[in-house]
Amino acid sequence: MPPLPSPACHALVKTHHITSRKKVAQLRKAAGKLGCYALLRSGGCPGIMYCRGAPDAVQEWVATVHALRYKDYQLMMRPATVESTRLGQIDHTPGLFEIGTVKGFANAMEQDGLLEWWRHGMKFA
User: Fold this and answer.
1) Counting beta carbons within 10 angstroms of the beta carbon of residue 113, is it exposed (0 to 12), middle (13 to 18) or buried (19 or more)?
2) Is residue 2 pLDDT above 90, yes or no?
3) Where on the tree of life does the source sit, at the highest rank (predicted)?
4) Inter-axis angle of helices 21-34 and 55-67, nearest 10
5) One-character DSSP codes across the chain
6) Which residues contact 9 (CB under 8 A, 6 or more apart)?
7) CATH (one of 3.40.50.1000, 1.10.10.10, 1.10.760.10, 3.30.70.100) for 9-121
8) pLDDT tens, 44-79?
9) pLDDT-derived band of residue 125, with 50, 70 and 90 as boundaries?
10) Tens of pLDDT along 74-123?
11) Cβ atoms within 10 A of the Cβ of 19, count?
């Protein structure tokens, strides 16, 4: 696994839904090309996207998402430095990974030590 960029940057995007397999394929390609880790909650409402990597890669990935013109696109948390001490302990292979439920997404954020950040960004807190 490549080392986490120092400093790592991340962003959070919310959309109405993520159902288009063509758009997901484009996001998967962008994550691989940019060498960033992306997590999607796909298949229903709401669509949630999280991206982490080098600052320039995260900025470009967010621009790719925006260009796909998702319905109700909202940049919930702008690209910023990751503030979690757990990230260095977690093996995240670059690429795009999908989760089918909001609860599963929350569990993934909790494992990364980012649950409170995510809850704040999603306006749950």
Assistant:
1) middle
2) no
3) Eukaryota
4) 160
5) -PPPPSS-EEEEEEES----HHHHHHHHHHHHHHT-EEEEE-SSSSEEEEEEE-HHHHHHHHHHHHHTT-TT-EEEEEEEE---SSGGGS---SEEEEESSHHHHHHHHHHTT-HHHHHHHTT--
6) 52, 53, 54, 55, 57, 58, 59, 79, 80, 81, 82
7) 3.30.70.100
8) 899 999 999 999 999 999 999 999 999 999 999 999
9) confident
10) 999 999 998 876 665 566 789 999 999 999 999 999 998 999 999 999 99
11) 12
pTM value? 0.90
Tokens for 49? Answer: 């996207």
Buried b (16+ CB within 10 A) or exposed e, 67-87: ebebeeeeebbebeebebeeb
Residues in the chain: 125
